[in-house]
Automatic annotation (TrEMBL):
Organism: Novilysobacter erysipheiresistens
InterPro entries per UniProt: Asp/hSer_DH_NAD-bd, Bifunc_Aspkin/hSer_DH, HDH_cat, HDH_CS, HDH_short, NAD(P)-bd_dom_sf
Protein's recorded name: Homoserine dehydrogenase
Required co-factors: a metal cation
Domain Homoserine dehydrogenase catalytic as annotated: residue spans: 171-371
Entry keyword set: Amino-acid biosynthesis, Methionine biosynthesis, NADP, Oxidoreductase, Threonine biosynthesis
Pfam annotation, one family: Homoserine_dh
């Protein structure tokens, strides 16, 4: 019986879910967050209806911060969203383990930007609930919380799916972990980790005011509604922390040196006053752009992790003037681009590049992580261990 399962999984890889024993129940999934990313998750799940992929996942709970809909036997994704919107009752995180209870892997998909939800990750993992997240507030903040998440995985024998937290599903974290699993030590990491800042510096030409580009990026949905969140470098701080910790460098948040692009006056304003004050960005950035161009360089917002030794390293985030032919100076649109140096990539780094923001790629990254959990569980049950 086991030998048959092994052969079929190997020879029909894309249909691996269908090829493992049908007795395995689908994963029970609770989706938290129905904003830009959550809606794209619902759409992707809806497109899987009637396919082997869809057969691996049962959506039993959908919630935003106000409402929730649950069904023990699972719901059609678009219908679940519609039902949720018409629910009179409030959404409560305490409900989540209760509605997930049943046969099959239990998975929370966190498509929120909520610290309250992120604080539950470790507890759910320890209870045997897998967590798949686009939110960086779980493992991109304090080291203590990151350690609680690791401990939760060990205690509950569960997986923390974090592919969508950095690079919106690009194989960054996976590559770092695979290198380390193969005995490599990571020497350094450097890259463009923010889709919105990548877009801004790919487009800024020093002619039109920088604030015009910020408004354009915000209106296109590339930045957060308050663009100071991107321009402050805080989002990139969280991403380099997540990459560093996956590389075995357990940095505390304040050990990353972050250069904010937001002048103090702009930083102190109430949110409603930000738009009118965006021109405060213009002069400093025009000067930096002109100085870079004089040296034949391009401005890029770069995160770096260097001097790695004994589990420690130097991390910094900020604007750099890079020669035009520098490996990190290229790219287009909202592309992320990350270079990884390790024992085997000592001189020429491994470079991973691609769209690092956007609802569709992020939703795909989240659901890839869910499917990995489904595959691993089913393979374990059939006696064939795979990743
Ligand atoms: N957008 C992207 O391209 C992208 C790329 C990579 C990663 N991410 C990350 O993905 C996450 C979601 O981003 P987004 O753009 O989809 O944000 P969004 O449009 O603001 O949606 C956030 C959703 O989370 C819900 N929420 C907040 N607190 C909640 C709670 N306690 N329980 C259940 N739901 C709750 C909100 O509910 P209400 O509707 O009731 O407010 C909303 O539906 C963020 O962490 C973001 O950093 C986004």
């Amino acid at each position: 019986m086991k030998a048959v399962a092994v052969t079929r999984v190997h020879t029909r890889r894309p249909d691996a879910i269908a090829a493992v024993p049908a007795a395995s129940p689908p994963a029970r999934v609770a989706l938290l967050g129905t904003g830009t990313v959550g809606t794209a998750v619902i759409e992707r799940l809806a497109q899987w209806a009637g396919t082997p992929l869809g057969g691996g996942v049962s959506l039993v709970h959908v919630a935003n911060s106000r409402r929730a809909a649950s069904a023990t036997l699972g719901m059609a994704p678009r219908e679940a969203f519609r039902v949720m919107q018409n629910q009179p009752r409030a959404s409560r995180l305490d409900q989540v383990p209760i509605v997930l209870h049943g046969d099959g892997a239990q998975v929370v998909v966190d498509a929120t930007a909520s610290a309250t939800v992120a604080e539950r990750h470790a507890e759910w993992l320890a209870q045997g609930i897998h967590v798949v997240t686009a939110c960086k507030l779980g493992q991109g903040t304090g080291l203590a919380q990151w350690r609680r998440i690791r401990a939760g995985c060990l205690r509950g024998n569960t997986t923390y799916g974090d592919s969508a937290t950095v690079g919106a599903g690009l194989p960054l974290l996976r590559s770092i972990r695979d290198l380390r699993a193969g005995g490599d030590r990571i020497h350094a990491i450097a890259g463009v980790l923010s889709g919105s800042l990548a877009w801004l510096f790919n487009h800024y030409d020093g002619l039109r005011p920088f604030s015009d580009f910020v408004r354009e990026a915000r209106d296109a949905g590339y930045t957060e509604p308050d663009p100071r969140e991107d321009l402050s470098g805080e989002d990139v701080r969280r991403k380099i922390l997540i990459l560093a910790r996956s590389a075995g460098v357990e940095l505390e948040s304040n050990e990353v040196d972050v250069e904010s692009l937001v002048p103090a006056t702009l930083a102190s304003l109430a949110r409603d006053d930000v738009d009118a004050a965006l021109p405060l960005l213009d002069t400093p950035l025009r000067e930096r752009f002109a100085a870079a161009r004089k040296d034949g360089c391009k401005l890029r917002f770069i995160a770096r992790l260097e001097n790695i030794r004994d589990g420690k390293g130097d991390a910094r985030v900020g604007l750099e003037a890079l020669p035009e032919d520098h490996p990190l100076a290229g790219g287009a649109g909202t592309d992320n681009k990350v270079a990884i140096w390790s024992d085997r990539y000592r001189v020429q780094p491994l470079v991973i590049q691609g769209p690092g923001a956007g609802a569709e790629v992020t939703a795909a990254g989240l659901l890839d992580d869910v499917l990995r959990i489904v595959r691993r569980r089913r393979a374990c049950r059939s006696g064939f261990n795979t990743r």
